[in-house]
Amino acid sequence: MTELPSGARTMEHRHSSPGADQGIQNQGTHPTPHGNHAAKPGASPAAVPATAGSAGDDHTVHSHGQHAGHSVAMFRDRFWLTLALAVPVLFFSPMFAELLGYAPPAFPGSAWIPPVFGTVIFLYGGRPFLKGGLNELKTRKPGMMLLIAMAISVAFIASWVTSLGIGGFDLDFWWELALLVPIMLLGHWIEMRALGSAQGALDALAALLPDEAERVTDAGLETVSVSQLRAGDTILVRPGGRMPADGTVSDGQADFDESMITGESKTVLRTPGDPVVAGTIATDSSVRVRVSAIGEDTALAGIQRLVAEAQASSSRAQALADRAAAFLFYFAAGTGVLTFIFWTLMGSVTDAVTRTVTVLVIACPHALGLAIPLVIAISTERAARAGVLIKNRMALERMRTVDVVLFDKTGTLTRGEPELKEVAAAGTGTAAGQDAVLGLAAAVEADSEHPLARSIVAAARDRGLKIPTADGFTSLTGRGVRATVDGRTVQVGGPALLRELGLQEPRSLAATTGAWLERGAAVLHIVDGGTVVGAVSLEDAVRPESRQAVRALQARGIKVAMVTGDARQVAHAVAAELAIDEVFAEVLPADKDKKVAELQGRGLKVAMVGDGVNDSPALARAEVGIAIGGGTDVAVESAGVVLAGNDPRAVLSMLDLSKASYRKMWQNLVWATGYNIISVPLAAGVLAFAGIVLSPAAGAVMMSASTIVVALNAQLLRRLKLNPAAVG
Predict the structure, then answer these.
(1) Is 203 annotated in the active site?
(2) pTM above 0.90?
(3) Is 409:539 a contact under the CB 8 Å cutoff?
């Protein structure tokens, strides 16, 4: 099969009888939506995410860092228990009762309720913070967990000293401790739930695979677990059944629901030779499929790896937040020491301890540490659910700064498959004459499996033409096809067919077909009984979505460019149809990255959108590399973003998400740092002379309120609608 013209090549129209070369033709006609994301040889097992067992609150979200080994359920359970214990601690606390003006009931042992319950709160509820603080101390990487641990430890020790009557101190901080620990747990619960929702994208993908499959053997069908399948096995997929592995249809045909991969609600017909993907659904018929990839080698597992990598990847903004948290630790520790020394020298050890604890609590960088990762986690999850897989967080951050989007043409802006554009009839320009020519061509092509033939037949049906019945179909290798229509011999083919028959184009056709050839179209002539009666032109079909994508980008002030290896006339015809700003034509695959460098040399920041095969150097060189249609392993390695579908409008989703997430990052950073800058001096007692004293409990409430504000602000990203069909 010869593809659509590239460069100055001329399309030869070669056909095959039904079934011949079917696999090759269908492979070209129905490309897999995302290619092969198989793990690379030698890849670390850690790079492949384990399949999540159950969705919901029981996820262990982090495998490293401050929440290592912690789950949403753990923080949730500890929060509710410590909250229940905090109620009697507060109620029986003399200081709390004095503040609210009531007298707690007195009975034997009532005085020990706050110390006993407070100790349980400290040991059980505070354990994650104590463990995390110890780890930060061991690694010499101080952060918010260490500050929380210091705060609750000081409150715990001081309260026990008071309860035991040691030294005559009046440092009853049980009620502050009872408030601080549950509020801290609540803040972490909110954070973990948000981060866990991003993990939910992986769970949703993992849940798409069935547990069992029907394997075809010499003895018939046998039901086996998916783990028992091997490449080369043949399986039966019944109507409504999900594909347990990647493979190729070997027998039968069915409409497949591939929305879980592409986001498209319309089903796709898959026939023998067509690739099918794990997790997709055969909606209407049974098919037999030869397995090509299982388990971690499937495209679905590849998408899972992409999402997992996105969750684990670091970014410049995150590094900034980490440095700010480390600085805040030393700032808080230094301020705490100075506060203790100052108020001790002023003669009030109680005030010194109280205000030192408050400083440590109020300076905790929980909100700061939450500001960036929570935004990125939600952004990544939202993008994944919209079919935009962010492999590198830097791509998300850089996208908002892009000045020009450089699209590869074939398979990106165009479908990469032929579409009938025009019909011309010899000696007449009437619609009836054109319909008659197209009807003859469709009758001859009806039994052909060639992509050009399919396009001709589809066009005739779309126009509502009655296609005559043909028989005696014959494929003329390298020249065209022949069949008998109403007792006449009709042939359809390119220049080689005319040369073989010794025919010349009528002058009435020559000017028209010449113009078609100049813009790179494939031209086929229809010969009826030895006379050329007309011609049709077929060109690489421009995606309707491409027009919307180009217009929307330009409306946002972003320049649109196109790069292709096709001849200039072909490239400029597509560029004119889409109103593209700049065209690079006749560019060899190895030179596409030079065009990216050329644009960058003008001071422009470039997002490159390609299929991820020949475009890999350009994808890697651009500020943002975007592989459309999933591409291949090369796309995964070269691009920072992979679009699960083939819709170029998804680039707009990426742009909108980048801008929205950047705004949220800075809003959260400003809130978190501003809160600390204002609160720490108050906690140190700089306004004590005016009677303004910030207690540890008030500090805990204010700090956790800041955390909740940051978390809720990040959650507002969920209102962003990433719908490619709604771009404008």
Answers:
(1) no
(2) no
(3) no
